[in-house]
Amino acid sequence: MKVLKFIKKLRKDTDGATMIEYAILASLIAVVSIAAITTVGTKVSGTFTEVGTKLTTTSR
Question: What does the domain layout of the chain look like in residue ranges?
Answer without folding.
Answer: 1-59
